Amino acid sequence: MSGPCLGLIPIPPRLVGNRRSSHARCPPEAASTFTPPVLRRLMLGLAAALGLAAGPALAWPDKPVRLVVTFAAGGASDIVARTMAEPLAMALGQPVVVDNKPGAGGTIGGTEVVRSAPDGDTLMLSNSTPLSIGPWTVPKSPYDPVKQFSHIAMLGVAPVVILANPKNGPAGLKEMPKFDAANPVGSFGSGGPGSIGHIVGEMVKHDMKFGMTHIPYKGGAPMTTDLIAGTIPVGIDVITAHVPMMKSGQLKGLAVTSRSRSPLAPDVPTVVEPGQPQLVAENDFGVSGPAGLPKDVVDKLAGALAAIVADPAVLKRFEELGITPLKMSSAQFGDDVAKQIADWAPAIKAADLK
Questions:
Q1: What is the 3-state secondary structure (H, E, C) of 321-354?
Q2: Which residue from 23, 196, 232, 240 has the least number of CB within 10 angstroms?
Q3: Could you read off the pLDDT of 202-234 as tens digits, one per residue?
Q4: Residues 38, 90 contacting (CB under 8 angstroms)
Q5: In this structure, are residues 1 and 224 in contact, taking their beta carbons and an 8 Å threshold?
Q6: CB-CB contact of 154 with 145 (8 Å)
Q7: 136 neighbors 345 (Cβ within 8 angstroms)
C-alpha cells in the first residue's frame, strides 16, 4: 500500500457516551480482532492493574491519542501498533489513532514525535530503526534518541528473516555469493534506508563478500509485494509480517537472525547454522513519547501497556507474529536504547554505511 494510512481504532460506545466511532480505515489484515468477551476481560484486568476503582481517573487523556508508526501500513511495526491500539484505547477511555509516517529510515515519524507537545497525546510505536540504528545511518540525525524521547514501555523483540523469491532468488544463505556472481544486476530490498533489514543486508554482503545492490522501500509491505512479484530476488525484514507468505510458498525463508529456529518457521535455518553467528540481530518494539512527559502520564501508560502485553489474547497474537514479549521498566527501556545504539555501531561502521 502506498502513502500514509490513518486508522481510527474504535472503542465501545459505553466508554464514549452515545458517540459511535467509525470503522478502521486501513487494510482488514492490519486490524485487531478482539472479541467482546476478550475486551471485557481486558477491561477488568486493566482497571485492576491501573487502580481505576481506587479513585478518580487522571485528567489525561481528554482527547484521542495518536500513535505514530515510522513505517508504511502493513509492515511489522504497523501490525504491532494495531494489535496494541484497541486494548490501549480500552484502558485509556479514548480512541487511539494509528498514524503512519514512513520515510528516511524512520526518522520522519520520529522527528514528528520529538517535536510534539510533551502531553501524552502523541506517542510512537518505537522500534530499532528510528532509535538504535538511525543515529549511525542518517547524516546529521534530526534528534538524540536517548535525550529527546521518553521511553515508556518495551513490548517485545522479533528476529529478522532473509527472504527470497522461490523462482528467481538464491536457494539458501550460503548460496548468496554464488547467486550474486551469476546475477550481476541482483538486488535485495528492505523497508527503507537505515532500516534493520537494510543493515542486516549490508552486514551479510560485507561478511560473505558479495555486492548485491540495496533497493529501499517505504516499509516492508511494498517491498514484499515486489519480492512476491519477482521484481527483486531477495528481501530482508522483521519476520512478523512474512510468516503467511512463507507458509503459502510465495516466499522462501533463507535464514532467521536468531540463535535458535523460530517456532513460526521451523524449516528456516538460523544464521548460526551456516557459520554466520555475527549476523544475529533482533528488532525491538516499544512505545515512546517526546521528552518531558509528566510522570503520571508515563506511569499510567506503562501500567496499561504491561497489562495488555500480559493478556492471553495479546500473548497469542504476539506468538503468531514471532514476537517474544520483553518486560522492562521505563528507566530500563531508556538504558536499553542507549545500549542498542552502542551495540549497532560496530556493525554499521564495518558495513561502511556512514
A1: HCCEECCCCHHHHHHHHHHHHHHHHHHHHHCCCC
A2: 23
A3: 999 998 999 899 999 988 889 999 999 999 999
A4: no
A5: no
A6: no
A7: yes
Question: What's the residue count for the chain?
Answer: 354
Number of neighbours of residue 92 by Cβ within 10 angstroms: 23
Domain regions of the chain by residue span: 6-157+282-350, 159-279
Report H helices in 156-215.
176-182, 196-208
Q: How far apart are CA 69 and CA 124, in angstroms?
A: 6
Cα separation, 72 vs 102, in Å, equals 5
Superfamily of domain 6-157+282-350: Bordetella uptake gene, domain 1 (3.40.190.150)
Q: Which CATH class is domain 159-279?
A: alpha beta
pTM of the entire predicted model: 0.75
In the structure grid, which three cell numbers stand for residue 38, read together?
Answer: 476478550
Q: Contact 311/45 with Cβ under 8 angstroms?
A: yes
Q: Is the preceding omega at residue 10 within 30 degrees of 0, hence cis?
A: no
| CA gap 190, 64 in Å, rounded | 32
SS3 230: coil
The C-alpha atoms of residue 156 and residue 176 are separated, in whole angstroms, by 30
Indicate whether 132 pLDDT > 50.
Answer: yes
Residues 338-346: contacts with CB under 8 Å, at least 24 apart: 338/146, 340/128, 340/131, 340/132, 340/284, 341/131, 341/132, 341/135, 341/136, 341/145, 341/146, 343/132, 344/128, 344/132, 344/133, 344/136, 344/199, 345/136
**4-24 pLDDT per residue, tens:** 444 444 444 334 343 333 333
221, amino acid identity: A
How much is the pLDDT for 44?
54
- Given a cut of 60, whether residue 117 has pLDDT beyond it is yes
Burial readout 185-218 (b: 16 or more C-beta within 10 A, e: otherwise): ebbbbbbbbbbbbbbbbbbbbbebeeebebbbbb
Contacts of 148 (CB under 8 A, 6+ apart): 114, 290, 291
